[in-house]
Amino acid sequence: MSIVAQLQIKTLQSQHYLLSIVKKSLQESPKMNYYDDCKFCHSNGEAEAQYRSHRLKNTSGLVTCPVLRSFICPICKATEDFAHTQRYCPQNKDGKFNSGASLTEL
Questions:
Q1: For 12-61, what is each residue's pLDDT tens digit?
Q2: Which helix (H) or strand (E) holds 70?
Q3: Number of C-beta neighbours around residue 40 at 10 A
């Protein structure tokens, strides 16, 4: 099997895994706390007009922040609806990829 095919399979597996987490989270906690601002953009020092223009996630738990949606996790390659930074990657539970400054420290 080619490397590209292996990567595509791994990406699909990661996205399927993330979707199962979102579904489980919604079943366990249907009243999630959503803010009017995007906490991702706010913590990254974006202008008030930017972080107040959208939310981080919708009520289904899918990412709506345009900045985060364009990010590709370097660990599991998740992006768009399931985008996250490596600090929040489900495959980084032990924190072994948490090195260097966080975005708020830069």
A1: 777 777 777 776 666 554 444 445 789 999 999 999 999 999 999 998 99
A2: none
A3: 22
Are 78 and 84 in contact by the 8 Å Cβ rule? The answer is: yes
Contact 21, 27 (CB under 8 A): no
Distance CA 86, CA 103 (A): 11
Cα 50 from Cα 63, distance rounded (Å): 16
Count H helices and E strands in the chain, helices first. 4, 0
Burial category of 22 from C-beta neighbours within 10 Å (exposed 0-12, middle 13-18, buried 19 and up): middle
Question: Is 67:41 a contact under the CB 8 Å cutoff?
Answer: yes
